[in-house]
Amino acid sequence: MKSGRFWAWVVFALGAAYFFIPLIATVEFSMRMRRGIYSFDAYEVVLGDPRFQATFGYSVLAAIFTIILGVLIVVPTAYWIRLRLPQLRPVVEFITLLPLVIPAIVIVFGYIRMYGSNSPLPFLASDTGTNALLVIGYATLALPYMYRAVDTGLRTIDVRTLTEAAQILGAGWGTIIARVILPNVLIAVLSGAFLTFAIVLGEFTMASLLNRPAFGPYLQNIGANRAYEPAALAIIAFAITWACMSLIQILSRFAPRSANRPN
């Protein structure tokens, strides 16, 4: 028994070292911009860079629109499948997994071929259309995470009983989804939203090929031309991502704990 516990701690220590040693080394390197002493000069340069502020703001705005689009698509779809079309669940789950199998570069090249300036729908001929396509592409990439988060939330509530009660009170489908279902799965939606935010913030392929001023291409550009600033940016991006993950863990404590009930 003691031997098993010892080896468990050894494995844990090795895993922690594998994770933290490169992180600590990156932090240490990012603080060596000023010769001979540790400083936060690299962080000051990055945070004061107008391109950082512009690209980060652009990606945050794109993430907000992506989350809104994802919620509008996923919540009604997952709700309707659980309520009326459970036989389609395997098909929908397979479809939502496709973005994990199909590379982002394939999706964006499809956009370029279908919506280029010579196509009947020339979205890429304007900045507004290109931004809209980018948000749609981001929503596609985040679909596996958003759908599973919402579907997990729907499993914790009695969808059929809530729907029947709302219909008895005269509520329409829009009211049922917006005022009954969505508040009950809000924690799950927020979990999917934070995952979507983290994906959008670091995505490079779509933003680069669509020539959008996003945070991912900025990270790549800085990494190709600077020494200490990329390490500082990596730590900043890491902190933002882990902040999102921590918020998911905090929010999951407030999620309903009821067992799965038949719907």
Question: What's the arrangement of secondary structure elements?
Answer:
Layout: H1 2-30, H2 41-48, H3 50-83, H4 89-101, H5 104-115, H6 127-155, H7 159-168, H8 173-184, H9 186-202, H10 205-209, H11 215-225, H12 228-252
Task: Explain what this protein looks like in three dimensions.
With 263 residues, the chain is mainly alpha-helical. The chain is globular. Residues 258-263 have low confidence and may be disordered. The longest helix has 34 residues, at 50-83. It has helices at 2-30, 41-48, 50-83, 89-101, 104-115, 127-155, 159-168, 173-184, 186-202, 205-209, 215-225, 228-252.
Number of helices: 12
Distance between the termini: 44 Å
**How large a portion of the residues is in β-strands, by DSSP E?**
under 5%
Mean pLDDT: 85
The tally of beta strands, per DSSP, is 0
What does the radius of gyration come to?
Answer: 22 Å
Output the structural class. mainly alpha
The SSE order reads: HHHHHHHHHHHH
In short:
The protein contains twelve helices and no strands.
Spell out the key features of this protein:
0% strand, mainly alpha, disordered C terminus, globular, 12 helices, 263 residues
